[in-house]
């Protein structure tokens, strides 16, 4: 089963696995607001109270803000403290406002003056609120920040370039906002495990250096990305799940996708891609879900793809495929393969003959045509096409896919460590 690393979604995170066991310091820093354990907590108190004054709506049943009283900042709902390792002092290390639905004047809240002033943060999760504007520049200076989730807010403007300077960042979730323009190439050089930017207004060709990314989970779905999938994608062997669905991608699939030996999910549904399925897809030994539906793919469906032992869902509907072999037909019977609305004449629910004839009367072209039969995981390199019996497939339960939960605004619940 494929799952996003649960520790990335777990909010009970510490700077260091042992330091949180150290006793908290006694109150020893006095301000006009009271007595605090140290100056860091005194500063955090000021920042939080200023932020609280801007919140006009706290609809969530948890009623966060009613707990933000007194000097015990570490007991405030939504905040977690830990020992900052470089100074050995208690500090506000984590913010969890997921689903709080905070709102300020006119329903919106700026991030400025809050996240950028909490410079001891390691985690900031604020899914499903009403934060507006852009991410403050000072976020790039937060030394220990490694998880940033601002999904399902009202952020706008261009991609926040300042995030690129947060060098310890491993988790970046900006989905369901109104961020537009270009995704900078530098984002693929960050040492990220998770990059979720689906459901925004990005409009560009996919960057050529996409394959430089070390990410495990990548969602670019529901934007306006154009052009072909870069061949460099084959250099990203860490990819487990990748969602490109519902964009405006064109061109043919590069055989290099077959190099994604760890991938369990690959989804390019609802684009404008064309060409045959590269035989290299038979090298996707761990693939569970493969969605190519809603494009203009054509030709035969390689038996080597249907023979993939972990495959549970293969969606090829609404294309122009013309041939499926016995293993693929067995998957159709098992409801693991959907080929409706193609040009496979002896199967039901296909396109009309006139529609298929019109499509194949067009000039169909792919660069590197010889590469479509190249199979990088096969000795000799080129596929020697052979049908095998349906018994070569195995049956197992349906895959549990985590990245698809990013296609709805709220975050799904996960088990705690």
TrEMBL record:
GO CC terms for this protein? Answer: extracellular region
* Keyword set, alphabetical order: Leucine-rich repeat, Repeat, Secreted, Signal
- Alphabetized Gene3D superfamilies for the sequence: Ribonuclease Inhibitor
What are the start and end residues of every segment in region (Disordered)?
Answer: 387-417
Extent of Low complexity compositional bias: 388-406
Q: Which residues form a coiled coil?
A: none
Which Pfam families does the annotation name?
A: LRR_1
- Indicate the principal place this protein occupies in or around the cell: secreted
Stated name of the protein: Leucine-rich repeat-containing N-terminal plant-type domain-containing protein
Native species of this protein? Gossypium mustelinum
Lineage here is: Eukaryota, Viridiplantae, Streptophyta, Embryophyta, Tracheophyta
């Amino acid at each position: 089963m494929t799952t996003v690393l649960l520790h990335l979604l777990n909010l009970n995170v510490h700077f260091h696995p042992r330091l949180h066991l150290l006793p908290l310091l006694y109150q020893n820093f006095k301000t006009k607001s009271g007595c605090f354990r140290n100056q860091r907590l005194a500063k955090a108190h000021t920042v939080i109270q200023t932020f609280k004054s801007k919140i006009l709506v706290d609809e969530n049943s948890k009623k966060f803000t009613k707990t933000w009283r007194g000097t015990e900042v570490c007991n405030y709902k939504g905040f977690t403290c830990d020992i900052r390792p470089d100074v050995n002092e208690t500090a506000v290390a984590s913010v969890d406002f997921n689903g709080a639905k905070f709102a300020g004047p006119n329903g919106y809240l700026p991030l400025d003056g809050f996240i950028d002033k909490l410079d001891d943060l390691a985690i900031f999760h604020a899914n499903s609120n009403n934060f507006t504007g852009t991410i403050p520049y000072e976020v790039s200076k937060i030394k220990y920040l490694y998880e940033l989730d601002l999904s399902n807010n009202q952020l706008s403007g261009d991609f926040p370039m300042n995030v690129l300077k947060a060098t310890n960042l491993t988790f970046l979730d900006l989905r369901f906002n109104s961020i537009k323009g270009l995704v900078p190439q530098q984002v693929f050089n960050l040492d990220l495990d998770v990059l979720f930017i689906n459901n925004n207004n990005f409009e560009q060709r996919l960057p050529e250096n996409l394959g430089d990314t070390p990410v495990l989970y990548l969602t670019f779905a529901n934007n306006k990305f154009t052009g072909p999938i870069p061949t460099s994608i084959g250099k990203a062997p860490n990819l487990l799940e990748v969602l490109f669905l519902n964009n405006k991608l064109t061109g043919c699939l590069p055989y290099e996708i077959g190099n994604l030996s760890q991938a369990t999910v690959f989804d390019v549904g609802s684009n404008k891609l064309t060409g045959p399925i590269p035989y290299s897809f038979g090298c996707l030994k761990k693939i569970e879900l493969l969605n190519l539906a809603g494009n203009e793919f054509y030709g035969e469906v390689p038996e080597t793809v249907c023979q993939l032992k972990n495959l549970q869902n293969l969606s090829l509907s609404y294309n122009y495929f013309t041939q499926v072999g016995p293993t693929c037909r067995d998957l159709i019977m098992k409801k693991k393969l959907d080929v409706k609305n193609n040009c496979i004449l002896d199967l039901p629910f296909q396109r009309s003959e006139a529609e298929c004839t019109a499509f194949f009367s067009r000039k169909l072209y792919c660069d590197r045509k010889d590469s479509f039969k190249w199979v990088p995981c096969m000795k000799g390199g080129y596929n020697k096409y052979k049908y095998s019996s349906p018994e070569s497939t195995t049956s197992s339960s349906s895959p549990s896919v985590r990245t698809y939960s990013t296609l709805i605004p709220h975050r799904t619940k996960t088990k705690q460590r």
